[in-house]
């Protein structure tokens, strides 16, 4: 049952981040849309990997989660640099609804 809830929550959380990815300025440009989409994707991967890191007791899962956090943090640093160069504002955190969803995901996940 928990696995089903997790499988439903993860796509819903990504979808909750989507509106924040499309906020102006420069949302109408290809560069702006790309940078905002990448920001939403990176933030989602970082936050969902933090859940996995905090809930897992399995070394392989924890190692993989930390690798995802490291890689997506580095990628987001590059995206932020590009966004600043193109005067494109990218969302900082996922919206409140996504944050609430991550809270529910944390509650649903059992330690594995």
UniProtKB/TrEMBL annotation:
Q: Which UniProt keywords apply?
A: Signal
Keyword Signal attributed: yes
Q: Which residues form the signal peptide?
A: 1-27
Q: InterPro entries annotated for this entry?
A: DUF4142, Ferritin-like
Transcription regulation listed as a keyword: no
- Which positions fall inside the DUF4142 domain? 31-92
The UniProt entry, under Pfam families, shows: DUF4142
Name under which the protein is recorded: DUF4142 domain-containing protein
Organism annotation = Deinococcus multiflagellatus
């Amino acid at each position: 049952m928990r696995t089903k809830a997790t499988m439903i929550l993860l796509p819903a959380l990504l979808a909750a981040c989507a509106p924040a990815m499309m906020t102006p300025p420069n949302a109408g440009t290809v560069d702006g849309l790309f940078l905002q989409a990448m920001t939403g994707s990176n933030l989602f991967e970082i936050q969902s990997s933090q859940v996995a890191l905090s809930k897992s007791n399995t070394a392989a899962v924890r190692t993989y989660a930390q690798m995802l956090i490291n890689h997506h943090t580095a990628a987001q640093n590059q995206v932020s640099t590009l966004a600043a160069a193109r005067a494109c504002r990218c969302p900082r955190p996922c919206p409140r609804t996504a944050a609430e969803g991550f809270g529910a995901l944390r509650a649903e996940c059992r330690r594995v």
